Amino acid sequence: MMPISYAIDTATVTQYLQQMVRIDSVNPGLVTGAAGERAMAEWLYQVCMEMGLEVEFQETALNRPNVIARWAGSGAGKSLLLTGHTDVVSVENMPGDPFDGRIEEGKLYGRGSYDMKGGLASILGAVSALKAANFQPAGDIWLGFVTDEEYLSIGTDALVTAIKPDAAILTEPTDGRLCIAHKGFAWLTLTTYGKAAHGSRYMDGVDAITHMQHLLKMITTLEEKVFVDDLHPLLERNSVHASFIQGGLGLSTYPDQCSLQVEHRYLPDLQASEIIQLWQDEIDDLAKNVPGFKASVKLDFERPGYEIERDAPIVQTLHQAFNEVMQTEPDYMGMFAWLDSAILGRAGIPTVILGPGGAGMHSAVEYVHLQDVFDCAAIIAQATADWVR
Length: 389
Ligand SMILES: [Zn+2]
Fold this sequence. Notes:
Shape: elongated
Radius of gyration: 24 Å
CATH superfamily of the largest domain: Zn peptidases
Order of helices and strands: HHEEEEEHEHEEEHEEHEEHEHEEEH
Mean pLDDT: 97
CATH topology of the largest domain: Aminopeptidase
Bound molecules: zinc ion
Distance between the termini: 13 Å
Largest sheet: 6 strands, mixed
Number of helices: 9
């Protein structure tokens, strides 16, 4: 069968992207009092309505709705979700108007252009190309525009309670590569316990801060000796670092407590429970060998990593669509940073990630390459048609 090519209306896609970048959707979880996703959600709702999709809001927090749109299939095919987040990070340190959406030499600038309104424009471009070609899906095509990816991902947490598509394409920026793996992370608090006493009473006091040195040393051991031996082909290695440290009562007092917050970033085959166990074993060991040593470990937050096999059907479909549209084989990658695909994966939705190229994610000057946005739209249109037909 000859593959059908879906023509992308580049002028409209550019307009969509420019309009989205001009909407302030800074995440209020990151910046107190920030605009949030409401205006973006209203804009997306309107565009989806105009395309003839069924659309609804799903509240994820006060004034922070997801937009869920559905192009109903005739019933026989597999369903597909095209998804991305509507929030952006802070505009601190950005010169000029961070939301101007100006275009220079094929690049569209502004906060969120690359991460990830460019990806959202690819989704809209893909669906409007299918509509323009009078495509008739057999399976449902879902669009999920979610809140809060840049903070706690309440958007995708809510989305997976509402719909159960057979697969998903997430359009986070991958510079045109197929991303099939990313790391998980865990935030832990380690606390050492001492005994408060007058600074002169060495016979009574136990110094909790000095005891923290053993746990700090454990970070170095993990980094230099343990994690270096376990390498993933796309994600390299596990890592851990200290984030905050706190403790002490006064200059002339033995500190009764010291707490250290650490962050682990780990490979998809590792679980937060195994990380905790690693620390618990070390604490038990130290308690046996260091006089007066007492400590605890507590998990504050975790998100798992994610990985999908290259021969998974959705990966194959996107691979072939890429090949047809770009006339070359795609490159594969893993993302060190965490993505919503872990939540989709945990909900049983096989997900692959593809988005446009650009620069300046979370930085002072951010832009996306318009040609990449059009290419991604064409690839996603082809993959969607192949999947749901
Ligand atoms: Zn993102």
